[in-house]
């Protein structure tokens, strides 16, 4: 049994960590911090947790208390982990950061997209990008994990087999992605109101989204050459779920794509390659730490289409964070992550 | 580890049994039957179960195979359990029926509401109404359980404290209930289409609904006098959840209603009396075997208002069925039922 | 052709006035005010209006400009009409107030529910409650209209026939009401987010809601005796629509209730009494200025159940406001209000 | 005032014709046919039409009665218009077919995609593809109109400017399209249930969809060279609306794309090119006969992204059919089509 802390637990990834950790056999939540809600019991804010964390209340961030934890999750806006991670690492606490703070290896690129200087460039060298399907061994040894973003998880898992095998034109990849509204967080903004966002569908950020450089970095690693990516995110009227529709142009004859995907993910506990001809539904992963993928080649032409779905709050955030924790502490990789998706 | 079978597993209560039993430490699913889908793997029909029941396929109902199980759930339309329960009981298999077949003690009343003769009146004597909050000890000894309906669960739990204590006019109780669309089952009917049922709200069955006599029977037991009930169900555009708004007229000064409710359910693991002034949300129980209740007395007048929420597929069906199983087999009452609700 | 102004046009009732007035043959929108959005074109905020009001921008409230209008709508939070109505009336401009400012005849009761003194008690004497089904003749002569609230419209129309005829116990009436989320306005509040309000159902304000005294006032007028009302509003996951389920206890034999309702509303252009046995759906009035009603007497007992649906933004607000305008200016009562509801 | 008939009026495009025609100043609906619902009043099936077509009932198809109409709409499954159009044309009745029967010019290609022989190849020569933005003059003279499909309308309008100007690689165009569930019609199918289709997102028909050859035909006409199209439709959990996200690779320097689009559609009453940088929402056209378009060039690279939204039942079906009717009969092109979209 290890002790963990959660910094910034009032948002959706925070409550999702609590929901999943309630079923984890090896983890106890020692502290959850929130300046704005300090003193409020988590189950008063999230009534689904009544009966699970009845004695746990949000507290002011406290270095001693967090430093006494074996690991601390950051479920915070960008910039916070920059400020606090170093101190925790010095105390011997491992850090699993769900924010974007350590996802980009290049501090200048980070500064450009986030509009402020990188706050902890000295830590970038040891930060491990927490996509187990790529970095499992490094994660096991890591002290500092940058949990991938939601879109980046779906897009990378869908495109890795093709780019690693050099089967598509790396210079012109298209990722048309659709997200439920929890992707926008729990902030009170007019466009996220039910009256505004339901019964409608729209793109956003077509000119450039912060997940673009993160995806590009990961895809470039996989391809071994620079990847040119057009990434258009959309908002779809549902709570959870991301659907990535990925398009690449085949260069030469690719062989059997279904087999390629099945082999690439044969040993992955949380990637499910669907049978040929499938169209995965986001609801099939609702609440579960899974990416389901299908690969199509319409009309046997030179365009390959990959369909990848995740729950943005689970495999796209909190579930993947716990998967990383399990690897770091030598637990079963699926500890706390065994429940089937909620369907219907 | 016991072996269970499921008869009629293609509907929503069937797949929900599988979802919950996947997390049950003491139960193995031996067989799941469906005439129409025999041969189809359950995970091909319900992709959320991929990775959980990969070898389980629907099969033709087979008395020998079901009779070899320790317990069999019926997740069937009415009439089926009538036909099969007797044989299974003779073989020593316990029967947990999620349909309406054994809910009414009076075979003639059953015949009147269901438009056909009761098919197994001889079994009515030993059938136990599976509401643990009322019949826990009888359930422990039972061979045949009639799992309560979804509306009846919410309405009875909400009204029991008041009627048992004789605090309201039993002759004039009102239950205004709202259900998500899974309450109508998985049948392909035009009114259940997303294009018809979303962005709309309506009542149905105002002239009389089959759950009325079941609720009335349970409330009358609690009150000790005949209960006059007006029950109006409504359809609300969501997948899961029932919200019962219950109105009674106080007879005399009732004392502290909050305390009354808290005491009545103090030892109940799956009834959560919310703090005074609360308004429980259905999402706070989504996927969980819980009934959350709040009691109000507007303007300190003579009308008491009770708000009770459940997930119709869990505490209103499959979760409650497993709770009964746990009691019957001496397992922890919450075995397989510990996960928090999925929120958001 | 008359000229109208709209004060406070950024909310949902403001845009709904614009949507409906775009089809009105006798009205031109001269000005629409908003301090916070002054200078913004309405079609930049509400793209559905592109092509309809391309030259109309929000402006600072300006007494001269508004006073040059024949009529001014207030689509404002409470208190604003108190401050401005008097001056406009002096200039000869008629005022149609969609807020709560002039709905209660008793300034002290108003102050109690709204937590501030009534700002224009001198105008209460001439304010006409704009429910045409009750006050049509007074509306024709009025200079100042208090447009009824959304819940009050549905509840009063559903109960008027019974209370006017003295058929139910006026001391114990129950209104169980369900509203879509636009009823909560366009304010950015966490509970109104799609991620919070969809896939869920809840009651709110069970202890007392500001529409209670307004409804009670109207029902008491109809009954001729004080009406005791229990009013419980609920939030249902949809954009538009109110469904009122109304319960009354019959005193004596009521005769044919269907006929009673049909006769009461025989000449009403915007009340539709559905055939006996009907269950009106809110979507059947989506976007339309209509109240559809059905009356039931379950089991031929002593409880009568009325089902009434409106679109909260149309018959519950902006449509009704225009219906009042039509009466005040001698236009056809349905001018601008002839479009069928949008279904599906 | 002309008389029109509607064949097959029980589906969503049928009721939408009635909803729109109720506001048309020049059209009277003389007959609406349905074998299955003959004798049923349309307002009993579609209560939103109560008060609008109270005397109109579905009738058996009758050549004399339909032939006495000036124009007949077909809102039928494919094959029906093949069988009936010829006879009506001989009687001098103009035919506006909302089905796919006359959309493809090549009868063999039609037969291949629809799995049955083309039933009226002799009429193909005079059938006019009813996209006014391309064929306005031909439509004015036409006796037989093939109303474009919903996806084809959005995709063609979004790509026409680029292909007509030869700015993108015609061999590799991608159309990633998202539709609300009314696109699947009113048939009672399990995947269209609210419990199955809401809170989820999925692709379908990735291997080939019947709208593909129709789109390809239109785009090829525009480009003057064969167009290679990858078309992936998706189902999004909402009632109405299509969002097309279109990707093309620029060949050479394109000049100002915003100006290109604005000029192409400068005189089009029902195409709205949004300001640069916009992301049109489907709700901004809900219920309205409009296509709103935005064009983006992310990172100033060689990929152009076009966003196009329509209401699939209006500009994607019934509204466009009426626009064609207006052109054919010399009415104002926007007669009956002037109402703003319903938002929120």
Question: Please, could you describe this protein's structure?
Answer:
Chain A has two domains: 2-126, Rossmann fold (3-Layer(aba) Sandwich), CATH 3.40.50.720; 150-314, Dihydrodipicolinate Reductase, domain 2, CATH 3.30.360.10. In chain A, strands 3-2-1-4-5-7-6 form a seven-stranded parallel β-sheet, with helices on both faces. In chain A, α1 (12-21) crosses α11, α6 (132-141) packs parallel to α11 (314-329) and α7 packs parallel to α9 (211-223). With 344 residues, chain A is α/β, with parallel strands linked by helices. Chain A has helices at residues 12-21, 42-45, 63-67, 80-90, 107-114, 132-141, 150-164, 194-197, 211-223, 257-264, 314-329, and strands at residues 2-7, 27-33, 58-59, 71-74, 94-97, 128-129, 144-146, 173-179, 202-203, 229-235, 242-249, 271-273, 291-296, 303-310. The radius of gyration of chain A is 20 Å and the shape is globular. The model of chain A has no long low-confidence stretch (mean pLDDT 97). Chain A has eleven helices and 14 strands. The interface between A and D is large, with 51 and 50 residues.
């Amino acid at each position: 049994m290890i002790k963990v802390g959660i910094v910034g637990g009032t948002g959706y990834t925070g409550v999702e960590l609590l929901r999943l950790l309630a079923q984890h056999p090896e983890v106890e939540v020692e502290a959850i911090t929130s300046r704005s809600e300090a003193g409020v019991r988590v189950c008063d804010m999230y009534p689904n947790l009544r009966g699970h964390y009845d004695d746990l209340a949000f507290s002011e961030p406290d270095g001693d208390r967090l430093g006494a934890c074996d690991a601390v999750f950051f479920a915070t806006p960008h910039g916070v982990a920059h400020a606090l991670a170093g101190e925790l690492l010095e105390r011997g606490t491992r850090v699993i950061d769900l924010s974007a703070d350590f996802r980009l290896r290049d501090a200048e690129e980070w500064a450009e997209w986030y509009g402020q200087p990188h706050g902890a460039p000295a830590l970038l060298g040891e930060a491990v990008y927490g996509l187990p399907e790529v970095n499992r061994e490094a994660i096991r040894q890591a002290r500092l994990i940058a949990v991938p973003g939601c879109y980046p998880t779906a897009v990378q898992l869908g495109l890795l087999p093709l780019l690693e095998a050099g089967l598509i034109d790396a210079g012109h990849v298209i990722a048309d992605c659709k997200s439920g509204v929890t992707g926008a967080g729990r902030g009170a903004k007019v466009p996220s109101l039910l009256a505004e966002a339901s019964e409608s569908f729209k793109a956003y950020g077509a000119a450039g989204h912060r997940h673009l450089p993160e995806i590009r970095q990961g895809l470039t690693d996989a391809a071994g050459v620079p990847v040119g990516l057009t990434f258009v995110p959309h908002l779809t009227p549902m709570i959870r779920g991301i659907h990535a529709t990925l398009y690449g142009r085949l260069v030469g004859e690719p062989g059997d794509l279904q087999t390629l995907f099945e082999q690439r993910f044969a040993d992955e506990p949380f990637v499910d390659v669907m049978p040929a001809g499938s169209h995965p539904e986001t609801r099939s992963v609702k609440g579960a730490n899974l990416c389901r993928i299908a690969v199509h080649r319409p009309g046997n032409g030179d365009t390959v289409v990959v369909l990848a779905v995740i729950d943005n709050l689970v495999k796209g955030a909190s579930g993947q964070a716990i998967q990383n924790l399990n690897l770091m502490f030598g637990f079963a990789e699926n500890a706390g992550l065994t429940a089937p998706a909620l369907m219907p």
